[in-house]
Design brief:
Largest sheet: 4 strands, antiparallel
Distance between the termini: 120 Å
Radius of gyration: 44 Å
Strand content: 15-25%
CATH superfamily of the largest domain: Band 7 domain
Structural class: alpha+beta
């Protein structure tokens, strides 16, 4: 059978009318004791079986009269003239899903990859889909596979891994331009999986680790540079402000001895320079218990 023709599909209404006609013909034949009513009503029933057809809510079908297109029928019941009229294949106008794949296809940087994608498409003009292309389902499948291979060849591996959404939109645009003339629109293309050789996966893992280490060293070096700059600014401030230097030294000393059991050795020159001898003596006298 040709892909643009459909096998006979009886409608429930036609089958019911055939049964009624046969039952009525049998009853009349038995009543009149004559076989003519059975034959006549049987022929009428078979005529109605082939004349009354039905399309589901989501379907359209083309009627050809002596091979010439006269219109679309459906959804619901419709009538045609047997022998004179023929039907094309029923066109499903719901959203369909096509799985496409490209195996061992080279990227722009000559890396063999296996790519799986999903194409969501639908027929928006059943007349064009029936009259303009013999098998639009197969046409969409082959077009999507060819476009996927061409897109892989235009992209490098890192783009395919990191920019799947952009690649899917590009494929959707290419396919939609090609299938619009067939009455078909491609709603979206999703890249489901990108597989690369195992040895290349190991190399990419090592490269990513080296890149992370490089960034960590850069961040550490930047932090050291900023700290050195701040220390330089602080040194200039302390150079021209001895009081600030003494206060900072006292603060550092306090931070060192504030914990219990801590002991700090301070050079005598530092104590004399900051005038801490008298202060420490007063502090010790204030903390001594009376006898």
């Amino acid at each position: 059978m040709k892909p643009d023709r459909v096998a006979f599909r009886a409608s429930p209404a036609g089958v019911a009318l055939l049964a009624i006609s046969l039952a009525a013909g049998g009853g009349l034949s038995a009543l009149l004791n004559n076989g003519a009513p059975m034959v006549v009503l049987g022929l009428v029933g078979f005529y109605l079986l082939f004349a009354i057809r039905m399309a589901d809510q989501w379907e359209k079908v083309a009627v050809l009269r002596f091979g010439k297109f006269i219109g679309l029928r459906g959804p619901g019941l419709f009538y045609l003239i047997p022998v004179v009229d023929t039907l094309s294949r029923y066109v499903d106008q719901r959203v369909r899903v096509a799985n496409v794949s490209a195996e061992s296809t080279l990227t722009r940087d000559t890396v063999p990859v296996n790519v799986d994608a999903i194409v969501f498409w639908m027929v928006w003009n059943a007349e064009k889909a029936i009259l303009e292309v013999q098998d639009f389902v197969q046409g969409v499948q082959y077009s999507a596979q060819t476009a996927l291979r061409e897109s892989i060849g235009r992209h490098e591996l890192h783009q395919m891994v990191a920019e799947r959404e952009m690649m899917g939109k590009e494929l959707q645009r290419i396919l939609d331009e090609k299938t619009t003339a067939w009455g078909i629109t491609v709603q979206s293309v999703e890249i489901r999986d990108v597989q690369i050789p195992p040895e290349l996966q190991d190399a990419m893992s090592r490269e990513a680790q080296a890149e992370r280490e490089r960034r960590a060293r850069i961040i550490l070096g930047t932090a050291e540079t900023e700290i050195a700059e701040k220390f330089g600014q602080a040194a200039l401030t302390y150079q021209h402000n001895p009081v600030a230097l003494h206060l900072r030294a006292m603060n550092m000393l306090y931070e060192a001895i504030k914990e219990k059991g801590a002991m700090v050795v301070v050079p005598s020159s530092a104590v004399e320079t900051m005038g801490l001898g008298g202060m420490l003596g007063v502090a010790s006298m204030g903390g001594a218990k009376p006898q």
